[in-house]
Amino acid sequence: MTMTSPHLIRRRMAATTPVVLALILLAFVLAALSLGDRAIARMAAETLIRVTLVVGFWIFVGNSGVVSFGHAAFGCIGAYVSAWTTLKPEMKAMLLPGLPETLAAAHWHFLPAALAGGIMAALVALLTGAAILRLSGIAASIATFAFLAMVNTIWANWTPVTGGTSSVVGLDRYITPWVAFGWAFAAILVAAIHAHSASGLALRATREDEVAAAASGIDRYRHRLLAYTLSGFFCGIGGALMGHFIGVINPDGFYLGLTFLMLAMLVIGGVGSLSGAVVGVLALSIAVEGLVRLPAEPAPLTEA
Q: I want to staple 139 with a disulfide (CB 3.0 to 4.6 A). Which of 25, 135, 183, 280 is the partner?
């Protein structure tokens, strides 16, 4: 009995973590909406979108120990795929004249468009990760940064399809705090399931000791690639959510600013745990909102 107790405790913790985090986020949404302030409701929705992005980011970084600078690119891909499939055809003819006929005529609802954005981001993650993840340590991190720069350059110059450096406007603003909460909970649930699956446990073993993990027969490359692809999916979803929250997308919105914001949130909460990823987003978002709402100091009087 004593031999299985630690195992049972870990299983119970794995089952309760997403529930506890969902309750925390639910309380956060209810508290924000109860204030009746539209600005705070928007802040709550934006925070939950960031939870989806950072939890997706954590699926790879937290489990593998490899710092990625490229995950904002998956958000960019998801946002633009969603825009290509949800914008009205008249808008696309004006803003994006180079789209293929199938995309130019498409006018989907947000849900299938977000899923398509996530799937496309996951496919790109699978293809690029197949090459990048053969590297390790700082070399892999630099390669992910090169991937981010590559996507940004392509999107900024592929003007007939992406609008180039001009913003793509006119996206329907579907995202409410409840929609964002649903996606954030889905990301947390999948991240928890993956982290405590055989693949997630094997990946964390490679994070702790690569040599011992390889001696135990663990295929580091395969487990990293799976986590990278799953991570890309949720970052793609997060990008689609951002686009339909703001109503406008631009390649620079998914570049260095978002990259370092995601890293900061993950580091503040703690890279090693799913709870830390969520708490880091909440802590930094609430702190920024509090600073924004501080009353400005009156200007000093000057003598005539």
A: 135
pLDDT tens-digit readout, 10-63: 666 667 889 999 999 999 999 999 988 899 999 999 999 999 999 999 999 999
pLDDT digits (tens, 9 = 90+) for 114-143: 999 999 999 999 999 999 999 988 999 999
Longest Cα pair distance anywhere in the chain, in angstroms? 84
Q: Please name the residue ranges forming H helices in 68-197.
A: 71-86, 89-95, 101-105, 110-132, 137-157, 159-162, 177-195
Residue 168 pairs in a beta bridge with: 249
Using CB atoms within 10 Å of the CB of residue 34, give its burial: 0 to 12 exposed, 13 to 18 middle, 19+ buried: exposed
Query: Which amino acid is located at 192 in the chain?
Result: A
**What percent of the chain has pLDDT above 70?**
92
- Helix, strand or coil, per DSSP, at residue 136: coil
Phi first, then psi: what are they for 248, rounded to 5°? -140, 140
Question: Which value, in Å, is the radius of gyration of the alpha carbons in the chain?
Answer: 21
Separate counts of helices (H) and strands (E) for the chain: 14, 2
Q: Are 242 and 121 in contact (CB under 8 A)?
A: no
Q: Is the pLDDT reported for residue 3 higher than 50?
A: no
pLDDT above 90: residue 211: no
> Residues with Cβ < 8 Å from 188, sequence gap 6 or more?
18, 21, 22, 51, 55, 274, 278
Picking from 92, 120, 134, the residue whose alpha carbon sits closest to that of residue 222 is 134
